[in-house]
């Protein structure tokens, strides 16, 4: 009778104005009015309590030591107030950037909302980043405060001399550890909770989050989002992730990645669901146990994880009770048709592919619940999003099915980034003929389904995470043996792509396995494990255009056994 798998989609509420847009409907459901409160921090905690759901669980967190912490929406409201008040006490003011450099601990999830309540801008960064990755992103944002943990303090201390604007290093698990200048302890559990905090009054255009993302050239750029984004994140959470207030939801993404904030903080908490978070990384058995233990109903994950689960096969699935699951979605990389078919066979549910970017802030092309699935296709534009495929060179809509071009979106949806932080030129370059160009190649079929082909730039997508070649090459150059280098993608059965570096050495250095290992570790420590080249090929010289630019695309084409194409065009790239 009450089989959650047949849970019908939310019916349109009585009284919804006819012809109301998906965004207006979301505003109405969120209670957003002209001039009324719309601070994301407030909407995701205080408002849920005002609706009488203060005692409903907001977060169940499992730490790596096996400990569990549970928070109701009332707790979430008070904890986020407490963080906002603490930051205020540190003289953080609206508009300041506050970096969150934390593992997947409750302080990260609540910290983002606390920063937003204060009207400051949250800059979440993967705690796996090395000091150099951290430094480049802090040099761009000029954050005045950073929340971190003891285990990451070493990396933060290393860069303090170069970040004079960073006034407060807030350590959330300091305990009795000796702290240095600029460092201050903050214990969320022990802190006296702040019952009332007036969330900073914001407009739809007030900056909310900065998410750093990689392009082909230059250092990573901060996609700057606004409080108005919640309208799109709420609408897509309801309609694509199909979340209803009584769901138990698991988003496996880290909030250092946009998926972990749009759909790991804002979407679910604006709907008022209980979300579960596992601090530890991927492990097949642990993941199935987690799903079973918490009776997860909706699960949002990524193709790399699904491929790893596929590799383990169906027997391990049979040893667990996963009957609570009713809806599965995936994002970050192409979801292979086999993975969709396998999940249907194994879980009795297909993984639905969703496509979007850091820059779009919300799912833009997707499979909606109930829509016929074509395994291997990303689905169709979300209602409210106008999408097309434009010609690779002219950027005019192609208007024909089956022709590969670039995915383009009509600007104006609520969660679109408003700029790249302090980089308006690169932002402006993303628009052509009135379209926002995503930078991905795809085609549309006769039924309007989008089929992903590949990226149109040199960015490497490894396990769903974008890594910029420039950042890797810059770091490689800092190694004493490296004269020049090129970082490109090479195929990988699980991570889809991994980084491969072509390296020309300075005279007197020998390209042997010891040096290879040393360079790999050098990059892992400075940047991150994902940016670390899995392979290094030592070479005498790198292929270059006549103007001296390294032809990464040629090296990449060789890795993928693809035709080299017309290399003369590279001259103008
Ligand atoms: C890729 C992630 C194929 C794409 C939310 C995009 C995908 C980039 C898909 C954005 C998908 C994301 N199928 N490719 N369903 N989803 N991508 O900014 O290249 O980390 O432009 O945001 O990931 O990655 P980002």
Commentary on this structure:
The protein has 573 residues and is of the alpha/beta class. Residues 1-13 have low confidence and may be disordered. The chain has 17 helices and 27 strands. The protein has a 9-stranded mixed sheet, sandwiched between helices. It is 29% helix and 23% strand. The protein folds into 2 domains: 22-444, Rossmann fold (3-Layer(aba) Sandwich); 457-559, GMP Synthetase, Chain A, domain 3 (2-Layer Sandwich). The radius of gyration is 23 Å and the shape is globular. Helix 1 (22-30) crosses helix 8 (230-239). A hairpin with a 5-residue loop joins strand 21 and strand 22 (450-455). Bound molecules: 5'-O-[(S)-ethoxy(hydroxy)phosphoryl]adenosine.
Compact overview of the structure:
This protein has 573 residues and is an alpha/beta fold. The chain is 29% helix and 23% strand. Residues 1-13 have low confidence and may be disordered.
Write out the CATH superfamily name of the largest domain: ANL, N-terminal domain
Ranges with pLDDT <50 over ≥5 residues?
A: 1-13
Helix content: 25-40%
> What is the level 1 CATH name of the largest domain?
Alpha Beta
Number of helices: 17
Q: Tell me which ligands are bound.
A: 5'-O-[(S)-ethoxy(hydroxy)phosphoryl]adenosine
Alpha-carbon distance between the two ends: 60 Å
Biggest sheet overview: 9 strands, mixed
The helix-and-strand class reads alpha/beta
Q: Look up the CATH topology of the largest domain.
A: Rossmann fold
Q: How many domains is the backbone divided into?
A: 2
The total count of strands amounts to 27
Please tell me the CATH architecture of the largest domain by its name: 3-Layer(aba) Sandwich
Biggest sheet: strand arrangement: 2-1-11-10-12-13-14-15-16
Cα radius of gyration in angstroms: 23 Å
Q: Taking all residues together, what is the mean pLDDT? A: 94
How large is the share of residues in beta strands? 15-25%
The dominant shape is globular
